[in-house]
Amino acid sequence: MPTTIQEYLAGLKGKSVAVIGIGVSNTPLIKMLLRAGIKVTACDRNRREDFGGLTEELESLGAELRLGPDYLKGLDHDVIFRTPGMRPDVPELLLAQAKGSVITSEMEAFFQVCPCHTIAVTGSDGKTTTTTIIASLLREAGYHTFVGGNIGKPLLADVDGMEPDDYAVLELSSFQLMTMDRSPDIAVVTNLAPNHLDVHKSMEEYIAAKENIFTHQSPQGKAIFNFDNEITRNFAESAPGRAVFFSRRQALSEGVCLRDSAIWVVSPEGSRLVLPLEDILLPGDHNVENYMAAIAAVDGLVPDQVIRSFASKFAGVEHRIELVRTLNGVRYYNDSIASSPSRTIAGLRSFKEKVILIAGGYDKHIPFDVLGPEVVEHVKYLILTGDTADRIADAIRSCPAYHGEPPISKYEDFNAAVLAAHSMAQPGDVVILSPACASFDHFKNFAQRGEAFKKIIYEL
């Protein structure tokens, strides 16, 4: 088993390699393999014209391209890197595996050869913000830190520049975790709720994928779980190493919890106040939980004063309750990352006033019933768009607490939905795009959806 990137690449010499997916997540991998003299076939369902000059660049480096609807047909390569988001059991991959192909991923390869400390974050909500906070705190404390996985960039190509005392901080999705056979030194699970059930066969499969973030840890590993979430609380029983809880709702005898409007670390050695809530610039209880998870991860690595200083100035990550503009007394927020009901609920609870909510999008086959009471309590007007508009409307109207308020409007066109929200808003109102759904019905990803929203708002 190779333990360095040089050994790993040497083991691929003379073998045929296929990389599925040409884009942000795999292009650096393709280029690294080609520059190491490895024969690579780059496969993607998109057509040549969709990539601009990238296809010509890859061909100039020696790549063979397999593009279009039949991009998976006839896979028989020695090693196949699947793209993040592709199930490992699609028929073409299973057939190739039966013929002797090794199916892997950039992230699996990274964990084989990473020479430095690893911290990884997963969960249904809060992954990106928690990952960003952890990485930022480590950098503020003077550690050389790399950020990657489901955010940032693939890190396999950066392994050569990593030293043993550095930190790689990773956001890992359930799709990346499904086939992982290694776990990070420190694992964080923010929470779990139904999500991605359009791809996962069941909630049980989704949960099992998330468990991979800690099940392969050594006894020296640390796994951090949300005590307030029943699923993640039960994970602690099967953690091979040390399990640490954080809780916003319960006083803990050990772990990270709230006390006297501050975040405390409680241990057998004593308790200490780490972060007063008034020092946290980010709004919302969910961001308090994100800080708790991050503090549990960096406890003993980052001084408390560094944490307090950072929290007082960190304004958040783009597309996550991002204040876009204040116009005529109306605040417009972009929360396009909210691709599940639980994330939208967290966004709604971040505001004291009732909001004008724009929701709806691609159908991931998850229930919207939980939105009903929250929309009734927190929403002034509900504007729906996208494939799930009718399903969300039905879920709200079937809520026992719903008696016609808030009014519900539906628009086929995303732009029309945003403009409708603007026309309804009065000075003092909050308009928030928080879809509770993925973006794939009309957009490439949540970021493109968020940018479209911001463009409309900027042009008002």
Could you explain the architecture of this structure?
- With 460 residues, the protein is α/β, with parallel strands linked by helices.
- It has helices at residues 5-12, 27-35, 54-60, 91-98, 106-113, 127-140, 174-177, 203-211, 230-235, 285-298, 304-311, 341-348, 371-378, 389-397, 414-424, 446-458, and strands at 16-20, 39-44, 64-67, 79-81, 102-104, 117-122, 145-149, 167-171, 186-189, 222-226, 242-247, 255-258, 262-267, 270-276, 322-327, 330-334, 355-359, 379-385, 408-411, 430-433.
- Helix 6 crosses helix 10, helix 12 (341-348) runs parallel beside helix 13 (371-378) and helix 15 (414-424) crosses helix 16.
- The mean pLDDT is 93.
- It is globular, with a radius of gyration of 23 Å.
